[in-house]
Amino acid sequence: MSKNIMHSRHDEYHKLTRGERIGYGMGDFAQNLVFGTIGGFLALHMLTVNTISTATAGFIFLFVRIINVFWDPMVGTYVDKRTSKAGKYRPWLLRAGVPLVILSALLFAPIPGVKGSVAFAFIIYLALDLVYSLVNIPYGSLNASLTRDPESIDKLTSTRMMLANSANLLVYTLFPMFVQMAAPKDRSLKDTGFFGLELNLGNYTDPSANYAWFGVYAIYMIIGAVALFICYKCTKERVVATAEQTANVKTTDLFHELRHNRPLVILGMFFMLAFTFMFFMNTVNGFFNQFVVGHSEWMGAVGLVASIPASPSRCSGRN
């Protein structure tokens, strides 16, 4: 019995291999590829290609965010109280990962019968956001269950950030360019801003570009699904709370902590402000380049330049 306990404690301080670190980081890569594209371009697609009004789209986004405030603590509690043979957190990468990919693709699907349908957009986006929590929350918890080794945790953080930024590069630099390359209307040779690179691009905000959006996004979703599967296969839970430890976990625990834990409130406020400004910039970028600058073909170059300041800090992690 004591040998098993000693082995378990030793396993908790397991040194993560490079493959394990990359495997876990593929989860960040997948989620940024899937939800980063949604966050950065769904509003532009919804208002232009899908012809839904600005006020209606704003209401959909606001309502779903309010639902998230109550839904996420419930998901965290539900996940913490259940364990399967594959683990407590890993199975959700597949259980919810497949519906996540399908629902996100449906938001861009060129289905004639539901084009411009507010009800369809609302239901699919709400379902997508609820399912996303079932992937993202267990994935975040999986990080702490891989190991207690400080050096491995430090390297893991650097690796996952590198892969997350790689996905962001694919989303904000290449995605709008790929969609414009596939858009059928108003095609002409345009300077992309990439060192004189000229491409034959179309108008991706015209309703006729619906198939272009779906085709490019479908490819991204396939890559995202493969990345989630790699994350599932390459990770192992070693530090997991027992059933006795999670028996008294309640959804209201979070709100109790927010009332009594001032450092947690400060940290939460920081993340709220940081993500507010980040999502605001990412969402507005497409509208700004299309309707203010008047050169949507520059979006890729602008996204590339914007990613440069973060590159040195991500690549200079200490061992």
Automatic annotation (TrEMBL):
<dbReference type="GO" id="GO:0015293">
    <property type="term" value="F:symporter activity"/>
</dbReference>
<feature type="transmembrane region" description="Helical">
    <location>
        <begin position="52"/>
        <end position="71"/>
    </location>
</feature>
<feature type="transmembrane region" description="Helical">
    <location>
        <begin position="211"/>
        <end position="232"/>
    </location>
</feature>
<feature type="transmembrane region" description="Helical">
    <location>
        <begin position="264"/>
        <end position="281"/>
    </location>
</feature>
<keyword id="KW-1133">Transmembrane helix</keyword>
<dbReference type="GO" id="GO:0008643">
    <property type="term" value="P:carbohydrate transport"/>
</dbReference>
<keyword id="KW-0472">Membrane</keyword>
<dbReference type="InterPro" id="IPR036259">
    <property type="entry name" value="MFS_trans_sf"/>
</dbReference>
<dbReference type="Pfam" id="PF13347">
    <property type="entry name" value="MFS_2"/>
</dbReference>
<feature type="transmembrane region" description="Helical">
    <location>
        <begin position="21"/>
        <end position="46"/>
    </location>
</feature>
<dbReference type="GO" id="GO:0005886">
    <property type="term" value="C:plasma membrane"/>
</dbReference>
<feature type="transmembrane region" description="Helical">
    <location>
        <begin position="117"/>
        <end position="142"/>
    </location>
</feature>
<dbReference type="InterPro" id="IPR039672">
    <property type="entry name" value="MFS_2"/>
</dbReference>
<protein>
    <submittedName>
        <fullName>Xyloside transporter</fullName>
    </submittedName>
</protein>
<feature type="transmembrane region" description="Helical">
    <location>
        <begin position="92"/>
        <end position="111"/>
    </location>
</feature>
<comment type="similarity">
    <text>Belongs to the sodium:galactoside symporter (TC 2.A.2) family.</text>
</comment>
<feature type="transmembrane region" description="Helical">
    <location>
        <begin position="163"/>
        <end position="183"/>
    </location>
</feature>
<keyword id="KW-0812">Transmembrane</keyword>
